[in-house]
Amino acid sequence: MQSSFSSTNSIIAMEIESTTQEKAGPLALAWDWVKSLPLNFKNIAVNLVRTTKKLGQDDPRRIMHSLKVGLSLTLVSLLYYWRPLYNGFGVSGMWAVLTVIVVFEFTVGATLSKGLNRACATLSAGALGCGAHHLARLFGEKGEPIVLGLLVFLLAAASSFTRFIPRIKARYDYGVLIFILTFSLVSVTGYRVGKILELANERLTTIGIGGATCIIVSICVCPVWAGEDLHKLVASNIEKLASYLEGFGGEYFPDPEDHEGNVMASKGDKALLQGYKSVLNSKNTEESLANFARWEPGHGRFHFRHPWKQYLKIGVLARQCAYRIDALNGNINSDLQAAMEFRNKIRKPSKKMCSEASKALKALALSIKTMTDPSAAKSHVENSKTAIDELKLVLKAVSLENADLLAIVPIASVASILTEITKCVENIYESVHELSCLAEFKSTSVESTVSPEKPQAQLLVLHCGSIKPVLDGDNDHVIITVHETRNIPYKLNFLSHQSPGNHDLEV
Amino acid sequence: MQSSFSSTNSIIAMEIESTTQEKAGPLALAWDWVKSLPLNFKNIAVNLVRTTKKLGQDDPRRIMHSLKVGLSLTLVSLLYYWRPLYNGFGVSGMWAVLTVIVVFEFTVGATLSKGLNRACATLSAGALGCGAHHLARLFGEKGEPIVLGLLVFLLAAASSFTRFIPRIKARYDYGVLIFILTFSLVSVTGYRVGKILELANERLTTIGIGGATCIIVSICVCPVWAGEDLHKLVASNIEKLASYLEGFGGEYFPDPEDHEGNVMASKGDKALLQGYKSVLNSKNTEESLANFARWEPGHGRFHFRHPWKQYLKIGVLARQCAYRIDALNGNINSDLQAAMEFRNKIRKPSKKMCSEASKALKALALSIKTMTDPSAAKSHVENSKTAIDELKLVLKAVSLENADLLAIVPIASVASILTEITKCVENIYESVHELSCLAEFKSTSVESTVSPEKPQAQLLVLHCGSIKPVLDGDNDHVIITVHETRNIPYKLNFLSHQSPGNHDLEV
What are the coiled-coil residue ranges (chains A, B) (predicted)? Predict the structure, then answer.
């Protein structure tokens, strides 16, 4: 509402301004414009410097990327500058320059994807183009351009249409583009140029050189891995949700004792509470990163065929949680003094829900970051579920005789949304756990990896499917030894909760 | 939860399968693979045909687009096939083919954006490249490649970095790419090729021909306007929200009389209730459409410099509403029989909120679609606000002595979220109204455009700023004649609500 007020006001202000300007006449206006030129240039320059500095500071890899592009380009320019190379390739060296500029992308995955797409497409379309060229020759001098034109038309139309298929759009869009490009160039220019095979060969080699230069520079000089970025993005998104929940608990259910201090502190936290908003629109970034990541070879902690898809699943759940948080955020500005009595009654379980859900999310983010087993989050998830039960008990016990239902409704809504968020957090936990199995995250309890006395580790491995019990028909399947009483009920509950099928097989 | 269950199960099933396969040995596996080949191919072919058919049916413009690409490509191929043209341009005709393939995009805006970007970038980079070439000549035979290399390195690095600036990324990304490309090609190849100016001239002309072909075909043959798509997308998104709210009202607050019938009907509506989900992730599509739309000339009902940015504002508010709806959707599967007594008490105002908000949204969608004044939605917005007041009255009057607070909480939450949604709808109304002013939507009440007896129309125009009262210093500003008593309080309220500043000036 406030923003709509102010925007309407600003429109009116603009109108007022334009009215005064209309009175001033075009000459005076032009003079004003000329007068303000140096100032405008200065402003633009200052803004540019500021933006550049900020972009570089936000992510220094951007500066590195720019230098890498320059380096690759200088390298392939040697095809021209260095006489022996120029004698070999001649003007075709141009294609290497062109390839470097078009293929070099910020992440290794994107560069690889474009480079491989380009190479495959050039190869196949080149072969097909030569074939088309020879086919058209059969139709005589008059028929040749007509047949060629028809073939180019058909192939271009068909290929353009395949670019609408979502799967192809996501992964091979550039390849299809280059396919049309090369096929048209080879078959059309082949009509005039005699030595078509030689031409195709030269072009293919130089494109190969350009692509290889990109890929080598991109991987060897400070590589930026799309996979790693995706990994960090998902973890940081979960962390942002955690920060919000942590802040919200203190903001909406302040401790009655240090009320003053809390309000003071919360003013500074307001910025922190906005962090979750970037999670709402993270879908496209995540999907393109995942698409690039699958092209990347193993790097650092990630092997080739790392389960990148699972990150997208976690992303979906995190966004779902963010939508709930956005709904919650609508309540934070409501009158915090209303129905203080009722609010105090549900303060303890609600705050516990907030803080435990927040802790669980933080533990999950840490687990993803360090690639360790997320079982540390499990207890927080359990605690937040206990808090739901506690809230239910409190709600059952509350007497409503003198209560003002009108003031209670928004608070009840907060409690209800918090319950929903807790469920979201549990779902996120499940999918991070699935990721930890698929990607074989390190177990946190280092000593309990193989020893048969530790059923906890074994059951985890069982669930993750590294040991295939019963089904193989051999009898050495895991027997639940009951001498570690502290861990077993917890783990059993966990197993039955996660995979009823497997549990049934065991029992 | 269900999905996590089933996915875990499917993982286990896959493990089981892989275990059995491991036992079978590689030879048998290979044989299985060969045996399944024909079936696989058939499946792929069937899927491909089905996908193609569906893509074509969903949007027949896609087929048209593919044919348009083929047509443009065939047209520029004439540069090769037609002897007089080939004699003029020679091998440079290749650049026309290349330009068509790279520049032709689905919407006119995208094609124009790419074409103009390419033309400007080629022109400026070509000139700069020639300059660099002549500068490098001054340094002698040994110095020339070094100076050229340095210049290419510096310019490529700097330009690559500017591609990280969000504003440039959004609008001029392709231009910067082509700038680096052309500069490198001209300055590097210029090192070996003598007649650099002639080369640049030929290339520029053919690129111009290619770009012009794209733009002409794209505009003249069944044009797809990004602006129109954005316009329709925003309207249909608002409609989806309306459908959800309409469905939700019937689903969550069923009439006690026809309970059976409603449950039967609601099963079919379930699919309708999922429509809002596409609104959640519409940000990127909207932004790219808006970016392309600003390149487009006036077309149909849209003039050049149509306020496309305002659509983005409406989009943001619609998404905010969709987030609330997603939170609401979490409640729809809860036990519908719980706390029937309380639910029945708040049924009337809640249902009214739903239906009035839904009607308001539908009226807004219609207003955008037909480009008429959205004042028809105003009464529904007012009604939904009245419903909030009614709900407040009901809540104050409800006796809670025997009520089960635990069962009431989710229903209270629904009521609270509905209130929030009503506020969102009001915001959407405000921004659509702003759009209607900026884009000069047609007034729905045709007879009341200028006549001084109709203060309603005049006040609207006043607010839209077509008449600038008081400020001009002349005295013919609008005087509120009070003889149409039915309209004035409503409109006054409306004015004071929308633009307090302007109202103050008047009073």
Answer: none
In 10 A of CB A73, how many CB atoms? 29
- pLDDT tens, position by position, B341-382: 788 888 889 999 999 999 999 999 999 999 999 988 999 999
Total-model pTM: 0.77
Handedness of CA A358, A362, A364, A365 (dihedral sign): positive
Q: Which residues of chain A lie closer than 8 angstroms to B63, CB-CB?
A: 161
C-alpha to C-alpha distance for B5 and A499, rounded to whole angstroms: 6
C-alpha separations of A429 from A8, A307, A352 in Å: 45, 16, 18
Pick from A164, A334, A389 the residue to mutate for testing the B interface (most B CBs within 10 Å): A164
Q: Which long-range contacts (CB under 8 A, 24 or more apart) does A13-19 make?
A: A15/B465, A15/B468, A16/B468, A16/B471, A19/B468, A19/B471, A19/B472
Q: What is the 3-state secondary structure (H, E, C) of B112-174?
A: HHHHHHHHHHHHHHHHHHHHHHHHHHCCHHHHHHHHHHHHHHHHHHHHHHHCCCHHHHHHHHH
List Cβ<8 Å contacts ≥24 apart for B443-447. Answer: B443/B372, B443/B373, B444/B372, B444/B373, B444/B375, B444/B376, B445/B373
* Tens-digit pLDDT profile for residues A329-349: 887 776 666 677 788 888 889
**Which is more confidently placed, B335 or A140?**
A140
Q: Does B148 touch chain A (CB under 8 A)?
A: yes
Percent over 90 (pLDDT), chain B: 38
- The verdict on a CB contact (< 8 Å) between A165 and B16 is no
Tell whether A477 lies on the interface with B, counting CB pairs under 8 A.
Answer: no
Helix (H, G, I), strand (E, B) or coil at A372: strand
- B179 closest CA partner among B129, B252, B247: B129
ipTM: 0.76
Tokens at residue B235, please? 């309207």
Q: What angle do CA A36, A41, A42 make, to 5 degrees?
A: 100
Strand partners, B299: B302
B433–A contact, CB cutoff 8 A: no
Q: How far is CA A349 from the centre of its chain?
A: 34
* Cβ atoms of residues A455 and A487 within 8 Å: yes
Helix (H, G, I), strand (E, B) or coil at B302: strand
Is A452 in a helix, a strand, or coil?
coil
Whole-number Cα distances in Å, B408 to A410, B182, B294:
12, 68, 50
Residues 200-239, chain A, touching B (beta carbon < 8 A): none
Average pLDDT for residues B240-266, to the nearest whole number? 73
DSSP label at residue B92: G
**For the segment A197-252, what is each residue's pLDDT rounded down to a tens digit?**
777 788 888 889 999 999 999 999 999 999 999 999 999 999 999 999 988 888 88
